[in-house]
Amino acid sequence: MEITDNKIFKIALFTALIGMMGMIIFAGDIAPKEVAIEDINRGMIDEKVAIVGVIESVKLSASGKSYFLTLVDNNGKISVVIFESSIVEFQEAGIDINSFKNKRVKVTGTLTEYRSNMELILDNANSIKIENEDIQ
Length: 136
What we know:
Elements: H1 5-26, E1 33-34, E2 48-60, E3 67-72, E4 77-82, H2 84-92, E5 103-114, E6 117-122, E7 128-134
Parallel strand pairs: 1-2, 4-6
Antiparallel strand pairs: 2-3, 2-5, 3-4, 5-6, 5-7
């Protein structure tokens, strides 16, 4: 059996189509890894993760263009940063960022390091979800 360029092309095309169909089918099932704050390390910088905890404080930056939320879980504390582009999404959705204070939330974002401290950067307004009612 002779392998021709035409046969190689057909095999490559078939393989690519199967691969793309698989990506489309399973894309909805891909979720960020859920981690505890104490398990976060510098090796995870630029990874997308999800953290469940309580928003302890909400502070507006001095420039008024971003928010800093303090998220705590059973074993740690991390700063969650919401930049101006995401704040606009919250405003358009009618969501007050201050309403997350003292709420148990699931936050999804990208880990970064700023001044030797780990931070979680929110991607958009859908990156923070209230898990249940107020924590007393």
